[in-house]
Amino acid sequence: ETGVTQTPRHLVMGMTNKKSLKCEQHLGHNAMYWYKQSAKKPLELMFVYSLEERVENNSVPSRFSPECPNSSHLFLHLHTLQPEDSALYLCASSQDLQGASGANVLTFGAGSRLTVL
Amino acid sequence: DAKTTQPPSMDCAEGRAANLPCNHSTISGNEYVYWYRQIHSQGPQYIIHGLKNNETNEMASLIITEDRKSSTLILPHATLRDTAVYYCIVPKTGANNLFFGTGTRLTVIP
After folding, report:
1. pLDDT at A100 over 70
2. What percent of chain B has pLDDT over 90?
3. Which sign, positive or negative, has the C-alpha torsion A50, A54, A55, A61?
């Protein structure tokens, strides 16, 4: 257990379904992130939140919708996904954004493995 | 992020030291070097980071050259559980995140 909890760990959904991934951290961190990892590809940053405000959105399709209701929780709402969206979705947190002064270590959750049929 | 170069794969015998190199010749004076690893199908795990001096913790040692253009991660006594992809990352000052490249796939052999 790293301090960052992701649920569900596994999710299978059809292309017309609506589902959500949840991430929770009790580390007192101010920044939270969503990453996507497709098979045999490097991690791709999707969204960055700092103090509940989105600070980065890396050209992610609108079928992925993030929500950060407070500094401890982060959601990724999924709607009308495609089979190529099947991947491991990783949530991470850090004390502050990477660009802040000093070193900021990312703590990752175990990931949610999504399969879109 | 400052560009890093790592070998795509390495093998290490169980119980021996694993030395993983990383080149980061374009690093700036105030940029840290981070190492993470990812065991198959799990989230990446932080290992160690450093700025100028060598660092050691319970997981590994980090040796940074004096000119800071390269570094080596040392796992002193590799075990089978150390088999993973190891990422060397130098985030650019002001960037909001870490860029994970392709890393080095370390295989510890019994």
Report:
1. no
2. 75
3. positive
